[in-house]
């Protein structure tokens, strides 16, 4: 699987997105990451393994403490991919805006 597909697949799960959001604030242990969720530590660990395989997180080692940290490179790849479609959306919104203004003008003309 290519990197972009792997990243998108890993982020398809809301629990994993929440973990990524938490790690954006800084390193955290598995226990800290598991705290907001009503699931077992092994279940959280499975989510972390998916994120780690996708390259979205890494785990360090500091004595007994194994902090997880966010790895931003795969997120940049998603941002770059989405950016290619921004012009499409901007054009669509511009056309919608023009259409709505036309409807308002027509409605105002009909009322006069």
UniProtKB/TrEMBL annotation:
<dbReference type="Pfam" id="PF12840">
    <property type="entry name" value="HTH_20"/>
</dbReference>
<dbReference type="InterPro" id="IPR011991">
    <property type="entry name" value="ArsR-like_HTH"/>
</dbReference>
<dbReference type="InterPro" id="IPR001845">
    <property type="entry name" value="HTH_ArsR_DNA-bd_dom"/>
</dbReference>
<protein>
    <submittedName>
        <fullName>Transcriptional regulator, ArsR family protein</fullName>
    </submittedName>
</protein>
<dbReference type="GO" id="GO:0003700">
    <property type="term" value="F:DNA-binding transcription factor activity"/>
</dbReference>
<keyword id="KW-0614">Plasmid</keyword>
<feature type="domain" description="HTH arsR-type">
    <location>
        <begin position="1"/>
        <end position="90"/>
    </location>
</feature>
<dbReference type="InterPro" id="IPR036390">
    <property type="entry name" value="WH_DNA-bd_sf"/>
</dbReference>
<dbReference type="InterPro" id="IPR036388">
    <property type="entry name" value="WH-like_DNA-bd_sf"/>
</dbReference>
């Amino acid at each position: 699987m290519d990197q972009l597909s792997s990243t998108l697949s890993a982020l398809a799960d809301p629990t994993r997105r929440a973990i990524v959001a938490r790690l954006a604030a800084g390193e955290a242990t598995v226990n800290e990451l598991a705290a907001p969720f009503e699931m077992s530590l092994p279940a959280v660990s499975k989510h972390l393994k998916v994120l780690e395989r996708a390259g979205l997180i890494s785990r360090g080692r500091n004595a007994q403490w194994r902090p997880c940290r966010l790895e931003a490179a795969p997120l940049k790849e998603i941002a770059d991919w989405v950016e290619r479609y921004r012009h499409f959306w901007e054009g669509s919104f511009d056309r919608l805006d023009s259409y709505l203004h036309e409807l308002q003008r027509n409605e105002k003309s009909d009322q006069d």
